[in-house]
Amino acid sequence: AMLTTKEQRLASGIYALSQVIAERINKWENKNKDYYPFIPNYSDDLLEAFEIAKKHVLRKRKPYFLDIGCGIGNIMLTAEAFGFEPYGIDYDQAILAMNPYDETGRHKGKLVYSGWKKEDALQFHGYKQFDIVYMYCPIKDDLLQRKLELKVERALKVGTIYICFRKRGSWLERDKRFKRLDQNLPIWKKVLK
Fold first, then answer.
1. What is the pLDDT of residue 110?
2. pLDDT in tens, 13-71
3. Strand partners, 88
4. What is the mean pLDDT of residues 117-142?
5. 74-81 and 5-27 are packed helices; what angle lies between their axes, rounded to 10 degrees?
6. pLDDT value of position 181
7. 161-165 and 187-190: which strand pairing?
8. Spatial separation of the C-alpha atoms in residues 166 and 138, rounded to whole Å
9. What is the pLDDT of residue 39?
10. What's the CA gap between 63 and 85, in Å, rounded?
11. What is the maximal distance between C-alpha atoms in the chain?
């Protein structure tokens, strides 16, 4: 599927911005060694996954999109360009300060759940309200990341599209609750409770 000219310009602009921010982040020391510092990531795979999600989502209204580990909001901005209603959670308050969607929800009426402690992503109980959930392996610790993946996967409602780049667990390939939507991309749809 082809991106519109507007979507291409937005994606290019976000990528350029993310490179500038990456330089700033390289100077910043991550004090919590359990979590990855925000590293802007953009690829054709992400855009293709969003196109697939757009085709498979079951909502007539704008689909609610959650970015787990949203950082500066670059993925949220891309989600908005694709017609999704973006939300995000992140552990790192300093990085969230650069996110255009502030924690009070004042910017464009969106709410970013922010300033949570590392355990709170595991304790967050709102995953089932989203139509599309995106995660790019925010936790370094293998067991904690797998625990987060399992929690999210259990909590998703039937019909939710789940995009999980750098997924640690391989159990979804055998899990009958999920249907893989693309052979080469880490994108699934929850089909059974």
1. 46
2. 777 666 666 655 555 445 555 656 555 555 788 889 999 999 999 767 889 999 898 87
3. 67, 112
4. 80
5. 170
6. 97
7. antiparallel
8. 9
9. 54
10. 6
11. 45
CB 187 within 8 A of CB 52: yes
**Segment 66-117, tens digit of pLDDT:** 989 887 778 888 888 888 988 888 777 666 666 666 555 444 434 444 333 3
Q: Quick one: tokens of 13?
A: 């602009």
Q: Which amino acid is at 187?
A: I
Q: Are 12 and 74 in contact, with CB atoms under 8 Å apart?
A: no
CA 118, distance to chain mean position in Å, is 16
Q: Output the pTM of the full model.
A: 0.77
> For residue 117, which amino acid is it?
K
The one-letter code for the residue type at 16 is A
Place of tokens 């004042």: 106
Q: Is 125 helix (H, G, I), strand (E, B) or coil?
A: coil
Beta strands in the chain (DSSP E): 64-68, 85-89, 112-113, 132-136, 161-165, 178-180, 187-190
What whole-number distance in Å separates Cα of residue 1 and Cα of residue 20? 29
Report how far residue 55's alpha carbon sits from residue 131's, in angstroms, rounded to the nearest whole number: 12
Whether 158 and 190 have beta carbons less than 8 Å apart is answered as yes
Which is more confidently placed, 147 or 22? 147
Q: How far apart are the C-alpha atoms of 76 and 22, rounded to whole Å?
A: 17
| C-beta of residue 59 within 8 angstroms of C-beta of residue 113 | no
The single-letter code of the amino acid at 173 is: E
Enter the tokens of residue 40. 């802007």
